[in-house]
Amino acid sequence: MARRLLEGSPAKISRALTLAVRQEAELLRKQILEGITRQAPGGAPFDPPLAPTTLAARKLKGFSGTKTLLRRGDLRNSITVEMQGDRAFVGVNRKARAKNGSSLADIARVHEEGAGPFVVPMTPKMRRFLFALFRRLGSARRGGHGAGGRGADVVVIQIPARPFLRPAFEAFRKGASARFLARVARLAGLTGPGGVL
Fold it and tell me: What's the mean per-residue pLDDT of the chain?
């Protein structure tokens, strides 16, 4: 197959290579998006799932969704393909911003790698929210968090890694060379009957 590609018209092969890179990049982007939607990037489910406190916090804020990385869809919708000559970038652009102005590239990195622990001083507003959250979870009745009293002056936050790019890249890599060469040959018109060179 490689020999037939080398024998083809250089201009035709160059165009086919660039188009094949773009098509492969779009296919990878599609698989990343499907991985988030199905909650299984690269075929493996997100682990760990969302914590009960996260789900309860979402409900307190008026959002009933239970999917990881899909609260508003900003991160999922920011995954893009950008061509740079005959190369393609697939991922979250450094300039991408959420509706609230946060860097989506930073958010993607946090989810890919995990972050923390962070020690955050608790404000009165945070304390009220946490007490309401723990009451919703029922821990106030058990004498746990939110059972009353002054409580802690800080909150410790740990964000577990929930990679969504890396697993998709690893799954996509399988068979990529053969798939890419076949795509280039097809686009350059070098395939015979049934797609065989």
Answer: 87
Which stretches of 64-165 are DSSP H helices? Answer: 74-78, 104-113, 124-137
For residue 64, the tally of other CB atoms under 10 A from its CB is 7
What residue ranges do the domains of the chain occupy? 2-114+162-195, 117-159
What is the band of 122 on the pLDDT scale with cuts at 50, 70, 90? very high
Are 119 and 152 in contact, with CB atoms under 8 Å apart? no
What average pLDDT does this structure show over 126-132?
A: 89
- Model confidence band, residue 140 (pLDDT cutoffs 50, 70, 90): very low
Query: How many Å apart are CA 137 and CA 70, to the nearest integer?
Result: 22
- Strands 79-84 and 87-92 turn out to be antiparallel
- What does the angle CA 158 – CA 57 – CA 40 come to, to the nearest 5 degrees? 65
pLDDT average, residue stretch 43-66: 90
| Contact call for residues 164 and 38 (beta carbons, < 8 A) | no
